[in-house]
Automatic annotation (TrEMBL):
NCBIfam families in the cross-refs: gal_kin (TIGR00131)
Domain Galactokinase N-terminal: 3-51
Family per similarity comment: Belongs to the GHMP kinase family. GalK subfamily.
Gene: galK
InterPro entries: Galactokinase, Galactokinase_CS, GalKase_N, GHMP_kinase_C_dom, GHMP_kinase_C_sf, GHMP_kinase_N_dom, GHMP_knse_ATP-bd_CS, Mevalonate/galactokinase
EC number, as in UniProt: 2.7.1.6
Molecular function, one GO term: galactokinase activity
GHMP kinase N-terminal domain segment(s): 86-171
Name by which UniProt lists this protein: Galactokinase
Length: 376
C-alpha cells in the first residue's frame, strides 16, 4: 500500500474516519419520514488529508489505482464518475453550501466491505466531508453534515436514498443504537449492549450477487410516494398503525397496499423495539426482527434467497430473531442469539449456504461503535 507521502509528495495534516452501519429495525421507513434504529460498525472509511492552495482536490484510494483530480469551482452534479463521485459530491455540496473548503489532497482507505449493504457510500461521503471541513477548522453540527452528505448522494451521485445511513455514520455513539425520528429530526441514544445480557448480535454478509439494487430501491421509494399522494398525506408516516386497515381499503392496487402495510407496521415495530429495550427486555426484540423480515420478504419484496435462507437457518438453529438489514436484494442479515449459540448459528448458516451452492458468507463483528471523528 502506498503512503500518503508517496502518492502526494507531502505530509498529511490529519485523518478523519466515518463508519458503516447496520440497522436493527425500521427498514425503508426513512424516506417515509419514519423511524430507524441503526448502530455504527467498527469498520470505517479513513480519509487522510492535506490542504492545497490551488482550489483543486486530488484524491487517491488504497483500493483503486491512480489519482483523480478536479477543481472544486468546476464541480457540477455527475461531473466526476465512479468511486471518486463520492468525494467529489462531498466537495460539491460543501461548496454549494458556502463553506470555504479550498483544495485538498485526500487518501481514502477502507476496511468496510463495499456492496455489502453496510453503507460504504454514506461513510465515504461523511468521511470526506469531515476531512474537508476539519482541514479548514470549520465546525459543522454532525446532523447537518449528514444532511449535506445525503443531498450529495441524491443530487450529485443521483441515488434517491434516505437519511439513515449518513445520520448513523455521523451521530452513532459506542455502546448505543441511534433512535432517529426522521419527521421530528430528533435522535435518542439507546443503550445497546447485547453481551451484558448474555446475548450476541450476529451480522452476516450473505455475499449475494448484485441484482439491480438501485432501480429496485428507486421503484420502492416511488410507490411509497405515490401511495402517500393517493391517501392525501405528505408521507406514509402520517398513517397511524390504528388507521392502517382503513387506509388499505382506500388503495385499489394489491402491490401498493402491501408496500404501505410494510412501512406502517415497520414503524410500529421500531416503537415496540425501543420500548422493549428501555424496559431491559432485549430478548423480546428477537420476534420483532423476525416479523420485520417476513414483512420485507412478503410485503416489500426486497429479499433474495440468500437472505431468506440465512434468516430461516438462523431461526432453526436457535436464534431469538433474525432479519435482513439495509436496502435489500443482498447485503447482510442480523441475528439476535444467546451468546453461547452465536458460533453454532453461524456454522448452521455456512452449512446451509454450502448445500444451496451459495457464496461463502462472511461474519462481521457487530460492536456498536462511534460515529465520525478526527483520528490524527
Ligand atoms: C439504504 C438507504 C437508506 C435506507 C435503507 C433501507 O441503505 O441508503 O436511506 O432507505 O436502504 O432502510
Amino acid at each position: 500500500m502506498s503512503s500518503f507521502e508517496d502518492v502526494f509528495g507531502t505530509t498529511p495534516d490529519g485523518s478523519w474516519r466515518a463508519p458503516g452501519r447496520v440497522n436493527l429495525i425500521g427498514e425503508h421507513t426513512d424516506y417515509n419520514d419514519g423511524l430507524v434504529l441503526p448502530i455504527a460498525l467498527p469498520n470505517r472509511i479513513l480519509v487522510t488529508a492535506s490542504k492545497r492552495d490551488d482550489g483543486r482536490i486530488r484524491v487517491a484510494s488504497t483500493g483503486h489505482r491512480g489519482v483523480i483530480q478536479f477543481a472544486v469551482d468546476e464541480l457540477g452534479p455527475g461531473s466526476v464518475g465512479d468511486w471518486a463521485a463520492y468525494p467529489a459530491g462531498a466537495a460539491w455540496i460543501l461548496r454549494e453550501s458556502g463553506y470555504a473548503i479550498g483544495g485538498a489532497n485526500l487518501l481514502v482507505d477502507s476496511d468496510l466491505p463495499s456492496g455489502a449493504g453496510l453503507s460504504s457510500s454514506a461513510a465515504l461521503l461523511c468521511a470526506t466531508s469531515v476531512a474537508l471541513l476539519g482541514l479548514r477548522d470549520i465546525d459543522v453540527d454532525p446532523g447537518e453534515v449528514a444532511r449535506l452528505a445525503q443531498r450529495a448522494e441524491n443530487q450529485y451521485v443521483g441515488a434517491p436514498v434516505g437519511l439513515m445511513d449518513q445520520m448513523a455514520s455521523m451521530c452513532c455513539t459506542a455502546g448505543h443504537a441511534l433512535y432517529f425520528d426522521i419527521r421530528a429530526m430528533s435522535t435518542e441514544q439507546i443503550p445497546f449492549d447485547p453481551a451484558a445480557d448474555d446475548l450476541a448480535l450476529l451480522v452476516v454478509d450473505v455475499k449475494a450477487p448484485h441484482r439491480h439494487v438501485d432501480g429496485e430501491y428507486a421503484a420502492r421509494r416511488k410507490s411509497c410516494e405515490q401511495a402517500a399522494a393517493e391517501l392525501g398525506v405528505p408521507a406514509l408516516r402520517s398513517i397511524a398503525f390504528e388507521e392502517l386497515a382503513a387506509a388499505l381499503d382506500r388503495l385499489p392496487d394489491d402491490v401498493v397496499r402491501r408496500r404501505v402495510r410494510h412501512v406502517v407496521t415497520e414503524i410500529r415495530r421500531v416503537e415496540d423495539a425501543v420500548a422493549l429495550m428501555h424496559a431491559g427486555r432485549l430478548r423480546d426484540v428477537g420476534p420483532l426482527f423476525t416479523a420485520s423480515h417476513a414483512s420485507l420478504r412478503d410485503d416489500f419484496e426486497i429479499t433474495v434467497p440468500e437472505l431468506d435462507v440465512a434468516v430461516d437457518t438462523a431461526l432453526a438453529a436457535g436464534a431469538l430473531g433474525a432479519r435482513m438489514t439495509g436496502g435489500g436484494f443482498g447485503g447482510c442479515i442480523i441475528a439476535l442469539t444467546e451468546a453461547g449459540t452465536a458460533d453454532s448459528v453461524l456454522a448452521a448458516i455456512e452449512k446451509a449456504f454450502a448445500e444451496h451452492g451459495f457464496n461463502t458468507p462472511n461474519a462481521l463483528a457487530a460492536t456498536p461503535s462511534a460515529g465520525a471523528s478526527r483520528v490524527g
